[in-house]
Amino acid sequence: MNYQFTSNLQQAQQLDQEDPLAKIRDHFYIQPGQIYMDGNSLGLASKEAETALLKMMNIWKTQGINMWDEYFHYGLELGAQCATLINARANEVLITGSTTSNVHQCISTLYQPTAERYKILVDDLNFPTDRYAIDSEIRLRGYNPEEAVKVIPSPDGKYIDEDAVIAGMSDDVALILLPTVLYRSAQVLDMERLTKAAHERGIIIGWDLCHAIGAITMDFQKIQPDFAIWCTYKYLAAGPGSIAGMYLNQKHFDKQPGLAGWWGNRDDTQFQLKQNFEHQKDVSGWQIGTPSMLSMAPLEGTLKLINSIGMEAIRTKSLKITAYLMYLIDEKLTQYGCKVGNPREDSKRGGHVCLEHPQGYQISLALKDRNVIPDFREPDVIRLAPIALYTSYEEVYQMVDILEDILKTKSYEKYSAKRGLVV
Questions:
Q1: What is the mean pLDDT of residues 355-369?
Q2: Between 20 and 30 A from 398 (CA), which of 55, 164, 247, 413?
Q3: Residue 405 maps to a domain
């Protein structure tokens, strides 16, 4: 979309006045004087999340074990609310586990290697936890990851080449796992194209939605992937380490879960406590242990808020405010060696902007001392995420002003380039 921006404060203020989501900001705990640009790593706390957590605490206090009468299917119920964000069927989405444990669950279920077809195809840029899990699953099946994991290299270290991925879908590939939005460069992959190509070749394909869900629109009933996994603490703002999500296409419900646990047993026989596992024939059959209610409750609050707004409106604001940020970077910061390191096309850009600079790490430290919260990714990327639900255009303008001052004065030079524990 062609936006008409100018580099003055008055336009930023005007954009906020015209923003249909401006009042949603009041639902979140914004710290005075702070510009928060790290919602793609950990979303801010909302009043809805707090209310839902306190409600769950009160239920625990007053009902004890009787709370299970109402919340026994909580993971599936929250999954149904999450399903609307990706247009999946309600019984295909589950809130459970962690991103990594859900990768293990899906791979262990759907990866069925044969002598002819035993490889798992991945890219070399995805967040490494997915690769760690895949390598583990490969070893558990008696294969060597160096031979059985097929890595499609990036041509430039920033973007995944979709044509190369399709070319790599050879007859020996059994399964594929790719990111929908690449965490480093915000590249959005064409899920429909790649899923179709995989299925035409008889290959199982899954998607990591960690940087996509709550940030971009998706249509799983149209795309029909085999599985997907995601965390809920980024754009869904469900809290640090909150319970993750999993999608399993209904065509796989008859398969035996790779990692069985008692919470995935059939409802009607679960408390008969038999020694033989009888799994529930929907996505809830892939639960393992007892759900963590206190960790799940905040998600209920944020999902209600997000669904009341709708992903179309959220994506529209996200595209506009990230385009505004890129415009200001071009206008004010390129003269200092900065450049935009993410796709500029709306259809190919996720929810954050990648500001590249050779001294990116030191600049990120300087920003934090000026009460701007970004994050940094190797080798030179400052990730800036103006979240549609709670970031204002004026905050984006102010942040770029602060960045310009840091760059102009070279105040970042006083900071060490040695990495901290959490970069």
A1: 97
A2: 413
A3: yes
